Amino acid sequence: MASTMTTYRDAVRDCLIEEIERDENVFLIGEDIGRYQGTFKVTAGLFERFGGRRVIDTPITEPGFTGIATGAAMTGLRPIVEMMTMSFSILALDQIINHAAKVHYMTGGQAKVPMVIRGPGGAANQLSAQHSHSLEGWYAHCPGLKVVAPSTPACAKGLLRSAIRDDNPVIFTENPGLYSIKGEVPDDKDFTIPFGKARIAREGKDLTLVAYSRMVHVCLAAAEELSAEGIEAEVVDVRSLLPLDTETIFGSVKKTHRVVVVYEDWKSGGFGAEIAARIGEECFDDLDAPVGRVGGLNVPMPYTRNLELECIPNDKDVLAGVRKLG
Amino acid sequence: MASTMTTYRDAVRDCLIEEIERDENVFLIGEDIGRYQGTFKVTAGLFERFGGRRVIDTPITEPGFTGIATGAAMTGLRPIVEMMTMSFSILALDQIINHAAKVHYMTGGQAKVPMVIRGPGGAANQLSAQHSHSLEGWYAHCPGLKVVAPSTPACAKGLLRSAIRDDNPVIFTENPGLYSIKGEVPDDKDFTIPFGKARIAREGKDLTLVAYSRMVHVCLAAAEELSAEGIEAEVVDVRSLLPLDTETIFGSVKKTHRVVVVYEDWKSGGFGAEIAARIGEECFDDLDAPVGRVGGLNVPMPYTRNLELECIPNDKDVLAGVRKLG
Amino acid sequence: MAKQAAHKELSATPTEIEKYYRETLYIRHFEEKCNIAYRAGKAGGYLHVYIGMEPLVVGWINSIKKGYDYVITAYRDHGHALLLGSDPVAVMSEIMGRSGGMSRGKGGSMHLYDLEKGLFGGWGIVGGHTALAGGLAFAAKYRGEDRVTLCYLGDGAANAGVFFETLNMCGLWDLPIIFIIENNEFAMGTRLEYHAADTELWKRGEAFGIKSERIDGMDTLQAKKDAERIIDYVRKEGKPYVVEIMTYRFAGHGAADNDQALYRTPAEVEEHRKRDPLILLQDYIKRNNLMTEEKMEAIDSEIEEEIDRIYEAADASPFPEKDEVYDNVYTDMEPEKGH
Amino acid sequence: MAKQAAHKELSATPTEIEKYYRETLYIRHFEEKCNIAYRAGKAGGYLHVYIGMEPLVVGWINSIKKGYDYVITAYRDHGHALLLGSDPVAVMSEIMGRSGGMSRGKGGSMHLYDLEKGLFGGWGIVGGHTALAGGLAFAAKYRGEDRVTLCYLGDGAANAGVFFETLNMCGLWDLPIIFIIENNEFAMGTRLEYHAADTELWKRGEAFGIKSERIDGMDTLQAKKDAERIIDYVRKEGKPYVVEIMTYRFAGHGAADNDQALYRTPAEVEEHRKRDPLILLQDYIKRNNLMTEEKMEAIDSEIEEEIDRIYEAADASPFPEKDEVYDNVYTDMEPEKGH
Ligand SMILES: Cc1ncc(C[n+]2csc(CCOP(=O)(O)OP(=O)(O)O)c2C)c(N)n1
Ligand SMILES: Cc1ncc(C[n+]2csc(CCOP(=O)(O)OP(=O)(O)O)c2C)c(N)n1
Ligand SMILES: [Mg+2]
Ligand SMILES: [Mg+2]
What we know:
Chain A has about 325 residues and is α/β, with parallel strands linked by helices. Chain A has helices at about 10-20, 45-55, 60-75, 95-100, 105, 135-140, 155-165, 215-230, 245-255, 270-280, 305-310, 315-325; strands at about 5, 25-30, 55, 80, 115-120, 145-150, 170-175, 180-185, 200, 205-210, 235, 240, 260-265, 290-295. In chain A, helix 1 packs parallel to helix 7 (about 155-165) and helix 8 crosses helix 12 (about 315-325). Chain C is globular, with a radius of gyration of 20 Å. Chain C has helices spanning about 1-10, 15-40, 55-60, 80-85, 90-95, 130-140, 160-170, 190-195, 205, 220-235, 265-275, 275-285, 295-315; strands at about 70, 150-155, 175-185, 185, 190, 210-215, 240-245. The relative contact order of chain C is 0.15. The chains are: A alpha/beta (about 325), C alpha/beta (about 350). The structure holds thiamine diphosphate (TPP) (2 copies) and magnesium ion (2 copies). The site of one magnesium ion (MG) has 6 residues of chain C, from strand 4.
């Protein structure tokens, strides 16, 4: 299958372009995504290319424009909402989880909300406490939503296309640290990756590392260091938190008997706890050690760089988590 | 210590009265809590008794009045915010987790937010999908907040007083199903229960049931049924989710070697997952069976009663969870 | 003379008048039946009736293109569904949580939806639906259709932040929507004066350059005329409109509101009763002798009996099957099952 | 003649004028230094300067009771801290993330706080702080104090729902607060016309019965006069006020905004430069020959050097210790530690 070396940013952008061209019902809406090209430039050139009908700049009103997108979706349009950063989606949570996620159920199936909410989640670089949230765990707790967090350009494109073509509201979290990474991305304009299918990012027999989004790369780095010590870690890229591919996760754990779940979100109460709890329930007899977890520090994100770096898990923290298994 | 038989509702109400009288800085703010006496009548008579300066009716603006309370708290006042139902606090989440919970950190300790946010959390009776949320798990995920969920009148009074006198924002979740239960409550106007101390609601040697709020009573009922079969379950009433008293929880598990965590919130991603994950990590060698979980069904709350009852865990569901441990 | 005067006053044909009279009675009896059902334990949760506010639907929903235009409101939504032509048995069944309900019992009284008839809910979060309404109007404009969206909201909801955010975008983007503020003078137990800094809520539209006005909502015929005028403007101009309609809530906030003395006096209610929409209609009919007393009473009991039949039919509908609890969470998959 | 004209025009004493001139220069040079620090990698994250908007703090903060009245704003907050009397080295240190910072490096440029001086932030969620501001004013009234709260917000923030919710409660409860809408014509890359249905933002206060007006924000002396008048009114009447101040953002949105061509032309900026507050002040001083060219330049370089010293002092401050990461999460306990 023909493919092209592409950045994560362009993989997302290309998919947006292809789907806008493919389906008249698809449009983009968000803050500074048009004339300003998007704060992270993911929508660069799209306003010029498709005009203000398909690429809509909004006032700074996350609850308002998320609700407007939801209402439009209820009539069959397919809005793609950009949150300038996922942190701001907190303001729209009521619209997202109480309206968009529930109306299909409350209507007994009459209404559908084919909407994607996308944007960078997690810490960037010194954006401080109010701009550095990882919210995918909260969303993955809400029935009615689907939640994906791709780690590579190819996954980003394949999962975004699935999200845009999905008839349910989908939370698509990118990560500021991933936009510039490169990878081969299939050219096929219908290339999709189904939800609920995890990816083995690295094969290994001694230990399993479970992660999603940018933490997959942190785990891969840690795996290389472990390999130097003769420990072969398997890295499972969850990709989709809701639905969650427990089959692949459990399969790896049953093979390696030791596992550490890694996530950037605050450790306590993060979605990694759910993954760990499920492994503990279903793989009890296969585990040679407790299910380990490595998460972000339980503090608001500090501004100054040295403290910020303390908060975000890195390869050394993953290694420490592995060592703790004993 | 002298005590009086009191309902959960009056325990909360009495504490509000005592603290309003004790501290000039304490005031109540919320929707229909004054002239209308509060939808669940927790503030009955307080407007007449203390007037509109101490008991404030607000417009329907959760973000606005929560922010106003937070700003007032930053000057040293001690607001007690009533959410008519905790479900509506979703609208104020940005104010709560991004402002109230973080300002102490962002100011490097300059600002304090001595505020309590209280109200009924969880399902009542056919209030449907938008009014039946259990949000304590989300709050317990946020550094800067403290989160308590008392199950008895005495706990409600002792923990609420601690919350009001605490210099940090505290989420105090009640439960619609608990307001009318009765129990002995100490008369002492300074009776407090410290945060981070779980309570052994029932002693047992064969199995541990971990729960909070109304689910403690569901577990106690299940424990009685188990007892009839000769299985003595210990019921740990967590009481405070953040800080969490893992010492007591682990202590019980190390004694019984089998545990089921029970919570009303959606099972997947609920705070029970965090509790289960911690037990799995710290009690690995003490467990004779996987850490079991019993949670609410992963669906928006349906209106009709028979389906609603399907969603909320009851004693039979707890028994089923216990049996699954094998 | 009288005839002439009558003729002058007459602003609708006798057939129309009879239609409005029947529809008003229909809603009135339906809502009374709902309250009875609630007290009988046949309906649960929160249930809010439209008694006294009928002209807001009789006047307005009769002025739109039913099934083409969009209608959305909060939880006080029975009248909207009935006038849009939803099957009344399905409406009552939903309120009673039965499988014959519009949402098979999953929504209940607060969450009535009939998308085919143009009813987009039925929402429980005060103010939250106003943004969705903006989205309905946005979609009509996006598709180049001349659909008008009617968004009903209460006086209390008119304080919610998301409403203002939506007003701004509707004004900014010229969306064809009418925000109907049902000013019934109370937000639950809180009187208008205690929740709104300026009690003239229509002004809130003006701040966004939106045509806005306040009108009376007790006189059905007047409501109809205003509705036609405003809907026509919005459809032609493709611009938003804010209309504050002065009405009154004769019932309690909801069926569970059992102490109205906390926020109003019987005298106040009596005063407003003088302009009860049903009474105004009856007076009008008599004044212009459009019907005999006998016929009016006959219609009344005819409708009352019809509502009884609807109730019986709804009550005969079974509750949903237990395993339906997992249906409709997603369009294409099931959630993780079990406790 | 010229003298008299000058005298007529003169609305502040020479000492005052010199003070404003020095403060304007101080902020101007401080902000330029911040941009330099940012480009040098000495400051990170988002950093937003006040260049061109100085009269909004020089005119207003000099008109309040410093340390008694409350001031709160968003992330464009350096000027507010400096004029309230915060230690400039602590301000610069915070911007550079050092332990000498007001928040020991935990807040950064967007989150400056100095509660003792009456500065309550420094907030990053657009519009979010307006509700907190209402709370500050609420507290003053609750305690029966005559403190006034100044709440600054941008034109873009004036669209946020929580702002309207707060306006309503401030009007409803007569809270002593002034909402200063810094209308610099842009919300990041979005021009006023593209984000506000009615670009006269002051009208948004009127809908809530709040005294509201729009004034010029480039002429420092005019700003001072308006500030005195309005602050005096609010302190005496104990009522809220909305003032929309027309200003202009000469710098990019933030230090990271490197392509202003996306939303404005150099010509537009040049046009506004004619009314650059610093230039207006300089012209005024010359016109009324209050200082010699030499003195003006001397002051300029004196301040520039002072800013350099401040920068050096801040740069000498160490970064916080690693374990401080756990401090200040709670007043009385530590969070769960470790990864
Ligand atoms: C966000 C939110 N807050 C509070 C409530 C509880 N509540 C339900 S109805 C209501 C009063 C609404 O009054 P109004 O908007 O005037 O509508 P009316 O009931 O008069 O038709 C309140 C406070 C809610 N449903 N949603
Ligand atoms: C809720 C929220 N949405 C989006 C942003 C990103 N953002 C930061 S500043 C800004 C523009 C604000 O413009 P304005 O209020 O006019 O203030 P100015 O920058 O002009 O001073 C935006 C969109 C944010 N910080 N918070
Ligand atoms: Mg009302
Ligand atoms: Mg601006």
